[in-house]
Amino acid sequence: MAAHEDTPLLAVETEPKSTWNERFYQFRSSKTAISFVVSLALFADMVVYGIVVPILPLIAKERLNADPALVGLLFGTYAFGLLGSTPVFAILSDRYKTRKIPMIIGLLGLGVSTIFFIVAENFWQLMLARMAQGAAGGASWTIGLTMIADAYPPDQLGVAMGVALSWNGVGFLVGPAIGGILFQYWGFAAPFVFCAALAFIDLLAQLLVIPATPKESEDELVSDTDDVESQPVVRVKPSIWTMIREWPIILCSLATFLIASNYSSIEPTLGVFLEEEFHYDASTIGVIYMALVIPNVFMSPIAGYLSSRFGGMNISGLGVLAFALVTPLIALPRSFWLESLSLVLCGAAGATAMTPILPEMGHHVTKLGGGAFAQVYAIFNMAYSLGMLFGPIAGGYLMKHFGFFRTMLTFGALLLVFAPVIIKNKRL
């Protein structure tokens, strides 16, 4: 009787465990899990990037006696690392059909590079640490976006990219505020210890997820039959060199470069402007920076949805035009609230301009035959990193010689000249 009763009890205990393991495995390989870990990676990368925004200008100026031009160069070195690592991560990922290993390497590098800031004793060591951050960020941006493109069908890609970019916006939203507060109350090392811990948490999440199988190009979809006439038309997988000669990719890259230049020109100059004009401390400057990023959290998913409905370049063109018009407004206000309002408008326009570019580039790869998502997003990252390099250096130089208003007016004018090009070529 006892033996007869033990059997169903064992069965009842085993079944839930098996079901739980199966469900957990399914979740690890689901689109939701992939979107979550990519969003977390972009969040962590942008926290690490943004956490130094309110404190690096102060450190460089007060401890190292660096002028605004050198501060701009310090911010721009992030782009050197991003530019150098991006194509390497992309080519290896597409060639060996692996996404997980490059992401893990990138997150390890992100954690280690933040420690470099603590031990840096001069300006050039700070530059090296900032460059190492950029190199690590190449994995999150290139491979992370590719993981989303692998997991989602084209009609869902715009919204998926928008959600990921919104978390990127959240990272940059909280990064400067966290950096300013930690620096103000717990000292120089505190922000970087926080960043290292965040990178470690993200690394654990990446170890759990099972990425989707990389999408194959049409040249790999060959029938098993021996009848030559039954074979599908072979289309060669596009290489990075092929794609950089495609006009839609060129147009998206130019737009990315200019938008990134505009954003990154604000980072080293606004803090100096606020400190000189209003004598704000690091924590207050960090809070004001939040106004630039808050709209990204909300506008990125909206812009992704609108791009799926009305065409990516239609929405991006309108965003570029608005971004051009509102950029000079940043330099006009003489109060905390008016400055915050102008930054909100600027952030909303920038998110509307940038978000549709990612699914547009992915759609064009699909038209070319697919199989090269990592490489096309490497092109995006290279264009973005060039903008991040140009913006702070040019912005720092212009502010030193012509002031903050003329600096913002110049970058707004560059976008205004380019906006008609996007609108004219709205059908890619």
UniProtKB/TrEMBL annotation:
CDD domains in alphabetical order: MFS_MdtG_SLC18_like (cd17325)
UniProt GO MF annotations: transmembrane transporter activity
Gene Ontology annotations for the cellular component aspect, listed alphabetically: membrane
Organism whose genome encodes this protein: Basidiobolus meristosporus CBS 931.73
Residues annotated as signal peptide: none
Domain of life, per lineage: Eukaryota
SUPFAM superfamilies tied to this protein: MFS general substrate transporter
Pfam family for this entry, one: MFS_1
Family: Belongs to the major facilitator superfamily. Vesicular transporter family.
Family matches, as Gene3D superfamilies: MFS general substrate transporter like domains
Main location: membrane
Record membrane topology: Multi-pass membrane protein
Protein name, UniProt field: MFS general substrate transporter
Residues annotated as domain Major facilitator superfamily (MFS) profile: 34-427
Keywords, comma-separated and alphabetical: Membrane, Transmembrane, Transmembrane helix, Transport
InterPro entries for the chain: MFS, MFS_dom, MFS_trans_sf, MFS_Vesicular_Transporter, Tet-R_TetA/multi-R_MdtG-like
Transmembrane region(s): 33-57, 69-92, 104-125, 131-152, 159-182, 188-210, 278-298, 310-330, 336-355, 376-398, 404-423
Keyword Mitochondrion: no
Localization, UniProt: Membrane
